[in-house]
Specification:
Elements (H helix, E strand, L loop, with lengths): L1 H20 L2 E5 L5 E4 L11 E4 L5 E5 L5 H34 L3 H40 L11 H50 L2 H9 L1
Antiparallel strand pairs: 1-2, 1-3, 3-4
Amino acid sequence: MRTALTVTWLSLAFMASHAHAQAIYTCVDGKGRKITADRPIVECIDRTQQELNRSGTVKRVVGPSLTAQERAVQDEKDKAAAEAKAREAEDKRRDRALLLRYPSRAVHDQERVTALAQVDEVIKASSKRTAELAEQRKAIQAEFEFYVKDPGKAPPSLKRKLEENENSSAVQKKFIQDQEQEKKRVNVRFDEELVKLKQLWAMREAPAAPAATAAKN
């Protein structure tokens, strides 16, 4: 049993050594000498080496080893390239999603109308509340008529009602202004989308144009 295990181990060791020996590295060092070895060549660590197959053809090219500073620079370049690639992939994903959501100009236009109508409904409700507050203020001011000669005698509860009314009116006014700005933002968003969509729609239709021309001919 021990003899069999020994033979197996020796066989595996020979196969591993034989596989490693199949790798051939070659380069020209700084003195112009061509060097060949069965492993990466230390004398050519600062220059390109070729790894050859047993037939002598180039299996791969091994670049020069980098210093710590060079490696840091290369890592930054690789990171920037990876980020750019990721951004490109994300842009393509967004373009596909945008085209899927808006397959035509009519669909995009209708969604703009719907979005603006929703904001208008909110403004309408706020305007109605503003009108109600204005009516309340008239009633409060009518009560103040009893104290026109001596406003200091007006009860604190009446003063508080007027203050609350004025604060609520100011809130509604600010809210309506914000909604008007929201309408502008909605239009800007749809305008920007439309610019991109026109490009995407044109690209989608482009392949069909040559086919249509060929069919006519």
